[in-house]
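Project channel, design review

CF: Before we commit to the Mojavia pulchra JT2-VF2 constructs, I'd like one complete example in the thread so the newer folks can see what an input/output pair looks like. Taking Caspase family protein.
RD: sounds good, go ahead.
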Amino acid sequence: MKRRTFLQRIGSILAVLGITETEWLTLGDAFGGQSLRYYQALAQPSPRKLALLIGINQYQKSPSLSGCLTDVELQKELLIYRFGFSASDILTLTEEQASREFIEAAFLDHLGKQTKPGDAVIFHFSGYGTRIKTETDTVQNALVPIDESKNPQNTNIVNYLLEESLLSLLRSLPTDRVTAVFDTSYYAPNTIQPTGLRIRARPEIIDAQLATEELEFLKQLKTQNSLSKGEVTPPLLLTATSESKQSAREVLLSGFSAGLFTYALTQYLWEASPAKTIQVSLSHVETSMHKLGSTQQPALLSSKKNPQAILLADNFLPNSTIGAEGVITATEEDGKTVNLWLGGIPPQVLENYGINSRFSLVTGEQLVLRSRTGLTAKAQIPIFDNTNSLQVGQLVQEAVRVLPRNINLIVGLDTGLERIERVDATSAFATVTRVSTVVAGEQPADYLFAKLLQPPTRYGLFSVGGELILNTAEEVGEAVKMAVQRLAPKLTTLLAAKLWRLTENEGSSRLAIKASLEIINSISPRVVMQRETMRSLGSETSMSKPLRTPVVPIGSRMQYKVQNLSDRPVYLILLGLKNSRSAIAFYPWEIPAESDISETKPLLKPIVIAPGETISLPQAAATSGWVIPGPAYECEHQLILSTYPFSETLTNLETAKNLTTDQQPIGPLLNPLEVAQALLQDLHNASPVKAEINSTVTDSYALDVNNWASLSFSFQVA
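CF: and here is what came back for Caspase family protein:
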């Protein structure tokens, strides 16, 4: 489509809407100046990096979503500050702008007209998806634009944008660096499980007819692609779900909502090295989504040969190989205060990120966090620092993580509970130490307390994604207060897991650590998972990892191999969860001399890894590996390393363990909350900067990225 034709088409659409072109330009400020900037961009030469980002929250007919505009902001900040896109080359269509006609016209002119071979192109859509039966009686996936119905008086004529149309548009671009992100889903479940996460899917409308304009547009695209002399370029399509009946969800955090997939994806891309493959990225993204309470799995779709091996750098063309947790977006007049965008901090950590946390610039200066609202924050140069070189666009990396000591487990009360049930539940949870309650969907929650669908007189604990946590539902007719009392020990375990997850810093740790989980008893031993600290080893390309959570057969003999590539000895501890219902820990036994067995109980010993050394866990030859028992379950391990001994952690482990019983290397953790608190205290003690943050010593932990690394491993046993 020629530029004149595009402008004429936009003009005709505006005329139908009753808006003059002058009014459209005036509306630019209300829409972040997008229309004005877009008209200016039309006159500029073809860029090397182009993006079209679409997000819709307020639909005409469907219930409102909350996180789609945040998704657009997440992607835009990432592309500009992490991957070097020019703001004028990023076109965003949000809310009223995101009609089917505008989306297609903007694609043709902003991307189709300007893209040249070798350019990087990013397309993003956040909003509702659905399914529609076309004139050939085939059911197709479709994206729902702002103008859902072609005619408000006849809602059966729908104005959807077919997924096939978008894929045809993407394939028509003359570059092999095309990436599309669809944070939507197409299947709306018939039954609504208790959930704290909105679902981005609309039910299929029976007897709905697709607008003829969309059908004609698709036919034109197919004809043009078939007549094209050049080869059709297959794009990389990153989708929020991997199966047709999975739901794309939104996550509610303090101060904002976002698409679960978009947030997890952009957060990882902030921290990751461009040398990582897209397959590696999605493996981390899935783990992050799982920790936020969802079982949805992202997918990579492409007809390219071996798309999993494509590096981030191949499609995003980054200007820098440096990963970061955020960026300076504005500076204040004093030259000492800046605004930060913290898109690179893991979401479960961001919720509890404390004042006085520190960030470092590539140039060496440090910033101290003074306030934070959602993803935005204010920070200052320390008083004793005379630096005046702060500039917009400078990346910031985590230096010191400050976490409050009074973190609670937050339980959301499902809105499906009767009023008297919510009152009783609130009263009962108030008696459980370090547990707070909120209304599900209105404030962030870690878990949900709700009724089971069948029978509806049973209560249980759910993930915020609606998955019932095993062994948390009891007999029919149980009173609310009795159910809460029964769940109390479980809540303590889940709080402990929340605390040790807050140590995760694979992206920001300055300790060079590699770790792998291996099956060692098969005919051909194999690596199940690998993790490594990205900031210290980010220039290397990781080996391929599965896109899905790996499955370990029951009866497998497993072993960790941990490599210390730093210049200091490090100490190691392992904590974890089994099926989200029981805590486990690695017990490093020190077996006394044979002559002393009758008189001396075995003790726990520190695990120390010398610089350059690789150790196996378990270490003793007599207990080479540990056997994975049945039945099937999910397992999550947190492998935590520090430059200082875990003295308090080992003391608490030793206190709770009956040393005369079975001495397996991985066993039940009987006092998980005490151990988790001791772990944070040990990491706090390992951080020399704590003495400089006097105001936070008594009520916070201060963890220095130079002194600890925490890697997460999740797998299924089947």
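RD: helpful, thanks. The first strand starts at residue 49 and ends at 55.
CF: Confidence is low (pLDDT under 50) at residues 1-7, 13-46, 539-544.
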